[in-house]
Design goal:
alpha/beta; Serine Threonine Protein Phosphatase 5, Tetratricopeptide repeat; Rossmann fold; 3 domains; seven-stranded mixed β-sheet; 28 helices
């Protein structure tokens, strides 16, 4: 069924009882079918009833054209009704009768789904009889007709006016119901629910069932995950929060996202303990636990699945799930259970105890996580107490081993970025002199320091380094200071005359390249300003550059530039290509570095199991000792700092595209 007619039907069915009470003998003696717009017409004519009671008796003579048309509409003979009304409109000169005829004509046309023609008659009514008692009702019916022809914004304007000016609760309730219909037609399901909840508040208890059913159908059939999550948080403990949680549980279960289904089951039991679905939810929760505990091997993931960091947690979890799929295919590990703990939901004071409880209950061989460096110290304490290795796929702490022997990291570190870039620039390209322009952030400061250190170790020189605030957009002052310092060394400035007799200073940099650690947005602003100031040397960047928006924002100013990162989705490397394609097929998105690093972390734990490890200590020993661990970047090992010795990828901007150099 067309979504629009679905909601129209629901709207009419919702209030059919109260509409019957509104219809007196002058107007309509019985309602049309629920799909033909009787809601608006009944409310439209309701305000006219009291003043017209004595003009026509309740049992109107069928010779009266309006009464006859009314009867024909009620018996679904719209064509005959339209014929009667056209003749009446052509011959009648009584304003009030004409207004009623226009409204009846609109209703008959609605019954035939001829909404543009219905709009024509309703607009005539409003134009010719602006002072009629039928005005608000006509606006109500017109709002409904506009919605049906896809003009929801026009409908909402009219319906809001009716809601604000309606003389009685019934008409106000009808207007609010149709506002919800219009919002639903726009796919603005949040506002549709808000309108229908307002409608319920205006209704007596016995008349709220249809509104609840309409919201239930909207939740079940129309809403995507994003809208459901928004409404789940907005109505955490009230209707329709219960329906939304049930729907989310169903969706996550069908997609194999047991950790998310489990989280919503817990929320449901907390917020709706007396709900009729609560026993079912409790059984499902027990089932999820039993499924994980019954696996031959269990892994745990300690990631943020709620809050502002949840997108990063979701990407990491996708990488974990993909690695588990791969492990089942290639390693023969068919029975690996995964339990997920939301690190964002853990209070700092209880972090250690909650994670310890997780390990005590599920006995995982390893934990993938946490993401944040500040969480590593309490995680290290649990790891030592429980003899369970923790592998962080994102924390940037350069030396996790100093916190404990059970901590590992698959993160691309700042040191690895600086080392790879300096080796390329100095050893491969022969650059010797550099300038640095970096943001005043921990990321920018640390990368600038490490790059300087690596360059100097290779015999290079840092001519000058300048910083900027992350909110800056004008970098001319910093660039001028770089140039001034360069002129004290190898840089030159020659004054020449133009063809018009003016003088111009031509600056020639004495350094070979500029290092710009920072985001792609910052690089896109800085690069053209460097060129404007005649700093025409190669630009070097960090992992923050790896975004296609750089090519659009910076245009040709970054052509030839080189940056480093841990993941290049278009890499020709077979292992990386297979990972990216699998990820895209499974999650309909391109993997991020978080996903790749979590994938590596999980694959290494599975590899340790394949090589005979059957305990947390066994996993740790394999990861410590083996030098040929398989990763997306090729065989490698964990170094003395506990960090995976991964080789960063070099990417160049070439002909307006990103191209891998190695």
């Amino acid at each position: 069924m067309d979504r629009f007619h679905f909601f129209a039907k629901r709207t009419a069915k919702l209030t059919s009882a109260f509409l019957s009470a509104l219809l007196l003998s002058l107007t309509i003696a019985s309602l049309p079918s629920p799909t033909d717009g009787s809601l608006a017409l009944a409310a439209a004519l309701s305000t006219e009833e009291a003043t017209q009671e004595n003009q026509l008796p309740a049992t109107a003579d069928q010779k009266n054209p309006l009464a006859r048309a009314k009867g024909l509409i009620a018996s679904h003979q719209e064509d005959e009704a339209i014929s009667v009304l056209k003749s009446f409109i052509a011959s009648s000169s009584q304003p009030q009768s004409l207004a009623q005829a226009y409204l009846l004509m609109a209703e008959a046309l609605n019954g035939k789904h001829e909404y543009p023609e219905a709009i024509h008659y309703l607009e005539r009514l409003l134009s010719e009889f602006p002072q009629s008692d039928l005005t608000l009702g006509a606006q109500l019916l017109l709002g409904q007709a506009y919605t049906k022809v896809g003009e929801a914004n026009q409908a909402l304007s009219l319906l809001a006016e009716v809601r604000n000016q309606a003389p009685d609760p019934d008409m106000k309730r009808a207007a609010v119901a149709l506002i919800g219909e219009a919002q639903a037609s726009k796919k603005d399901y949040v506002r549709a629910v808000q309108a229908w909840l307002e409608e319920m508040a205006l209704s007596p208890e016995e008349k709220r069932g249809e509104a609840r059913a309409r919201i239930r159908d909207l939740v079940q059939d129309q809403m995507d995950k994003k809208v459901l999550l928004h409404l789940r948080d907005a109505y955490a403990t009230t209707f329709p929060g219960d329906l939304i949680l049930i729907r989310l549980i169903e969706l996550h279960t069908n997609r194999g996202e047991d950790h998310l289904a489990e989280r919503n089951l817990r929320l449901f039991l907390t917020h709706f303990p007396d709900h009729e679905y609560a026993p079912t939810a409790a059984e499902q929760l027990k089932g999820f636990k039993a499924k994980v505990k019954g696996s031959q091997y269990v892994l745990a993931a300690l990631l943020p699945t709620s809050g502002r960091l949840s997108p990063f947690g979701a990407e990491a979890l996708n990488g974990i799930r993909l690695a588990l799929d791969k492990g089942k295919e290639t390693l023969g590990l068919a029975s690996v259970g995964l339990v997920v703990k939301d690190s964002q939901a853990i209070e700092k004071s209880s972090f250690r105890s909650e994670v310890a409880d997780l390990i005590a209950e599920y006995h995982p061989l390893a934990v993938i996580g946490p993401l944040l460096s500040r969480e590593l110290q309490p995680a290290a304490a649990v790891a030592e107490d429980e003899n369970t290795p923790f592998v962080t796929p994102a924390a940037t702490l350069p030396d996790v081993r100093r916190l404990g022997a059970y901590l590992f990291s698959t993160t691309l570190t700042y040191q690895q970025q600086a080392t790879r870039l300096a080796d390329y620039a100095v050893t491969r390209m022969g650059y010797r002199r550099f300038c640095i322009l970096h943001p005043e952030s921990p990321y920018g400061l640390e990368l600038a320091r490490l790059f300087s250190q690596e360059v100097k170790q290779r015999g290079g020189t840092i001519i000058a380094a300048e910083s900027y605030k992350e909110s800056d957009t004008d970098f001319s002052a910093q660039i001028k200071r770089l140039k001034a310092e360069d002129l004290k060394h190898e840089g030159t400035a020659e004054t020449t005359q133009t063809s018009k007799g003016a003088t111009r200073v031509i600056y020639q940099p004495g350094f070979d390249a500029v290092f710009l650690p920072g985001s792609y947005a910052q690089a896109a602003l800085i690069a053209p300003q460097l060129l404007f100031h005649d700093v025409k040397v190669p630009f070097l960047g960090s992992s923050g550059w790896n975004n296609q928006e750089l090519l659009r924002l910076a245009d040709r100013s970054v052509e030839g530039s080189v940056f480093v990162d841990g993941l290049f989705p278009d890499s020709p490397d077979p292992a990386m290509h297979d990972f990216v394609e699998r990820y895209r097929r499974r999650f309909q998105a391109t993997p991020s570095l978080f996903a790749a690093q979590a994938y590596d972390a999980t694959r290494l734990v599975l590899e340790a199991i394949k090589r005979g490890a059957s305990s947390g200590k066994g996993i740790r020993d394999v990861l410590l000792k083996q030098q040929d661990l398989p990763t997306l970047g090729g065989p490698t090992a964990f170094g003395p700092t506990g960090t995976l010795e991964r080789r960063a990828v070099l990417v160049q901007v070439k002909h307006g595209k990103f191209v891998q150099l190695d």
